[in-house]
Amino acid sequence: MTEYIKYVDVTKCDGCRACMVACKSWNDLEAEPESFNGTIQSHETLTANTWNLITYQEKEMNGRFEWLFRHKSCLHCTDAGCEKVCPENAISYTDYGSVVVDYDKCVGCGYCVEGCPFDVIQLTHYIDENGREQRRAQKCTLCTDRLDEGLQPACVNSCHTDALMFGEKDEMLALAEKRVKEVKERYPKAHIYNPPGVNGTHTIYVLVEDPEFYGLPKNPKVPTSAKIWKDYAQPIGKALLGVTTMAVLGSMVSNKFLNPYHGGGDSDEQK
């Protein structure tokens, strides 16, 4: 099966925010105005209705100050913590490698928020068709609906500097490796961010500083407890629940139809 990757080159991003606008527009996400916080960054962080964000950081490099931007969104981990901890199997992987939420299954428990090593997925409140307030998890889908139609993700399609690209895994990794070599003289710390602790991601970066500078964990991992829960405890628990349920139903059936005192047969007094 062909794997796909979104490639983010921070050395080409000029902070225009076109990707943010395209994401909001395509996914019909509500606007979230924030008070001025003394910086030019539009939002403090990602939310359930802001799925991608350009971060702005100024740093002295090579004797001068430079703005370093990062396109911040879901990385779509190959081994996703949010998917591991979801008790309702509402989070799954697609053939493209994207990690998506099934809104019909999501119960808004918030375990995924705690399980994400990148602090990406968040809960939103909404009113259902019965007028009741509900919660559900929302985040970037890598525009899976557009991919189904042979289109690029909306953010990639809007990028005028080719800081965002999308394609087959091998091709994108080759581009990233080539770019690191091109910028090494200017940015000695340049490297590819594709953390092995989550078996790699389907959004990779060319960074020019340590991951922590950009607010990224150095070596994110899915907690062992989450793996045990998803891969062992949950399946066993459901199996046991199934056995228990069948035992209870069997007992009810036996009592109703086979017990002579419940009308299922003739007692000695009835004979």
Automatic annotation (TrEMBL):
Residue ranges occupied by any 4Fe-4S ferredoxin-type domain in the UniProt entry: 4-34, 65-96, 97-126
Entry cofactors: [4Fe-4S] cluster
A Pfam family the protein falls into: Fer4_11
Keyword Hydrolase in annotation: no
Residues reported to bind [4Fe-4S] cluster 1: C13, C16, C19, C159
Molecular-function GO terms, alphabetical: 4 iron, 4 sulfur cluster binding; metal ion binding
Binding site for [4Fe-4S] cluster 2: C23, C140, C143, C155
Keywords: 4Fe-4S, Iron, Iron-sulfur, Metal-binding, Repeat
Gene Ontology BP, a term: formate oxidation
Binding site for [4Fe-4S] cluster 4: C86, C106, C109, C112
Cofactor details (free text): Binds 4 [4Fe-4S] clusters per subunit.
Compartment(s) of residence: Cell envelope
Residues given in the record as [4Fe-4S] cluster 3 binding sites: C74, C77, C82, C116
Protein name: 4Fe-4S ferredoxin
Upper classification of the organism: Bacteria, Bacillati, Bacillota, Bacilli, Bacillales
